[in-house]
Description:
It is built from eleven helices and two strands. The protein is mainly alpha-helical. A two-stranded antiparallel sheet has the order 1-2.
Amino acid sequence: MSVDEDEIEASRAPLMDHLVELRSRLIICVVAIVVAFIICFAFAAPIYLFLLHPFQMAAQMYADSKGGEATGPFDLLFVLIGLKEAPAATGDLRLMFTAPLEFFFTKLKLAGFGAVVLSFPVLAWQVYAFVAPGLYKRERFAFLPFLLAAPALFTLGGALVYYIILPFVLWFSLSQQIMGAGIAVELLPKVSDYLTLVTTLLLAFGLCFQLPVVLTLLGLAGIVNSEMLWKGWRYAVLGVVVVAAVVTPPDPISQLLLAVPIIALYFASVGCVKLIELRRKKEDAAAGTDVALS
């Protein structure tokens, strides 16, 4: 019996022990989500105002552009990332809710979304701790980096939404307004609709940015290989473009801003899978040498 098989055998436990451990880890996950939900609900108003900041800047700068100042979506992007001074406030940003409890339920949804994001490290660690005894030692070490890569890539996708995608989406939306001849067609979004837009974009970009994690894990499991991924790059690019067209607002800039990074991450994933294959060949060669010597 090999060393890896000895490790698996030593970690075996009766079914009841596994169920007890599963229950305890589920309890920890539930407690983490509840605590994170309470924290996020307590700060729901500041969090919502933070999410509104791009809309506030967009409304002010769009009003300035109508007043003769040369501004555009790229200027808004520079303001949000701190490369340009924010415009002076010219008025209050107005959003509305049409049902008595609409904003309350909006805050509940915001707290629920924030709770999952905030508690994700705890949830991911509990999942890993539960399945780790059934993995070989080298598989456990290989799995750990993904616990860091997944939230990091999700955060990167969220930052892309907040600082780049939202400016273009909001500027495009504001440009659809009609003013003149005694008629005003203004953008007055509902608080729930704005939160839905932001959370949808955050989820879409955050999940799409998990592509390297998914493909690399599939490569570790032997389900895909670098040659297969490289030969299918045309279909992958087509799939990414279709997904970008579906999950982003109907403007080409937003679609390109999602498609281009995902395509780059796809080719980076092919490289990661290739490195895994090279390392596996070296380990197999070393194992074969050890067996021959013994």
